[in-house]
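Data card: per-record layout.
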Amino acid sequence: MVNHMNVINLMGPTASGKTALACELYERGNFELISVDSALVYQDMDIGTAKPTKAEQEQYPHHLIDIITPLQSYSAAEFVSDACRLIDQIHLQGKTPILVGGTMLYFKALLEGLSDHLPAADAEIRAEIEQMAAQQGWEAVHAELQRVDPKAGEKFKVSDKQRIIRALEVYRMTGRPITQLQAEQPKQQDYRYHFKNYALMPDRAELHQRIEQRLKKMWDIGFLREVEFIMEKYDLPENLPAARSVGYRQAIDFLKNSDRSHENLCIMEDKALFATRQLAKRQYTWLRSLQEQHNFTVYLTINHAREDLRNLYG
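The structure for this 314-residue chain is written out next.
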């Protein structure tokens, strides 16, 4: 008989308060924290990712933070491999893992599995697709996707550049549409884990206010100086995932391509705010999609979540 081991998944959009809540639970019980965040994996990217400070990490240790440089990539498949290894280690220590973050693709991969048919990224093919976009425009690249994979072409907008690149990359490598390969993957992994899924989904107006406050704090404590340091230390190419992270993309464009006037600074800050709100909107969409497939407890306020989870695990 399989002994299913409890795993707590604490999800939510950016700035919803999930990390603070996970740290409170860590203090009250026999837990270990695993970060589920595609930006927190990068070293030196601290302020713009709202990464827990060094002091906070000492008090509330998180796995899967600062594990690669901004010049490297980290896939959902690598996350699943790392997370499962850590979950097993934590259970052997007699503790319960809390997976906390807002990268819903990682949660989906953990809950549902990844298709064995999907190949790893190919830098050469990606470069070819990006060159086509530079020469002909993203509308032409999107039209190519519509031709080879109509379902993906309908699903992705012209602005969904990374998804378009990935879909075309998979087609060029396998000769088959990515939507077809994804449909063949198992809907539920045969895991020995028992996932307990919790989602913080505050009111949009409240969340937008929290996002605005967080970004203001980031600018005040030196986010732009951090981006300048990263650009200088790594000579960061703009096509890497780290450089495309929300906030960093807008800051890099401002530092590289503007006269750095106060007017352009304000424009850049507005763009970063808009991009962060759009990220939160996508995270809500992902969460609703996951809710359709898996059992979830949803909290509309942090206070409700805090009270309920303390009663369950405190």
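Known properties of this structure: The two ends are 29 Å apart (CA to CA). The longest strand covers residues 193-200.

See the next section for split statistics.
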